[in-house]
Amino acid sequence: MRKMTIVGLAAVAVLTAGCELEEDPVAVQPAESGKAAGKEGGEAKGKDVPIKLTAKRAKADRSVLSSGGALSCVKVTVKNQTKKQLDVNPLYFSITDTDDTKHDSSSALGEYEGQIDTTELAPGEKATGLVCAKGKFRPKIVAMTNPLFSEAARAEVAP
Questions:
Q1: Domain spans of the chain?
Q2: The pTM is what?
Q3: Which residues does the UniProt record annotate as the domain DUF4352 (predicted)?
Q4: How far apart are CA 80 and CA 88, in angstroms?
């Protein structure tokens, strides 16, 4: 009986220990080649990353579903540099502003025209579209997650 309890507790400890591990942050890809990346993640060069992500500030045209209010947007390009298919979805993006506040792109879905499509990219393919969040702020970093919502790529936003 005591042996079962010890084995059970050891199993629980092993399972919960894995849940508490934090992954290293994904490196921030610079807005322009040759520029240093953000302080947090180090420098990431275009060919060194599996998902090349670029972003530039942009304005969006309102859709017929728009409820009004301010939107802050970036035009993103995602390039699949892996050997596997890559899922892209507007829900996989977030924008961090200059005050380091993270804004979820789901807050503005349907509010604007030209959002990045939900698609699957083959190796070497790329997709371009807008990512917006509600509110008036200056975008600094755009991040993309994978289908399991783990961060997959980050990039500085060019002016």
A1: 26-158
A2: 0.75
A3: 66-130
A4: 10
The H-or-E segment that residue 8 falls in is: helix 2-20
pLDDT in 10s for each residue of the chain, 159 residues = 555 445 455 444 444 444 444 456 688 899 864 343 333 444 455 567 899 999 999 999 999 988 889 999 999 999 999 999 999 999 999 999 999 999 999 999 999 999 999 999 999 999 999 999 999 999 999 999 998 889 999 999 999
CATH of domain 26-158: 2.60.40.1240
The whole-angstrom separation of Cα 9 and Cα 108 is 45
Q: Are strands 151-158 and 51-58 parallel, antiparallel or unpaired?
A: parallel
The answer to whether residues 78 and 86 touch, using CB atoms and an 8 Å cutoff, is: yes
Query: Dihedral, CA atoms, 9, 10, 14, 19, nearest 10 degrees?
Result: 10
Could you count the other beta carbons within 10 Å of the beta carbon of residue 151? 15
Q: Which of 35, 25, 84, 31 is nearest to 53 (CA)?
A: 31
Separation between Cα atoms, residue 23 and residue 62, nearest integer Å: 37
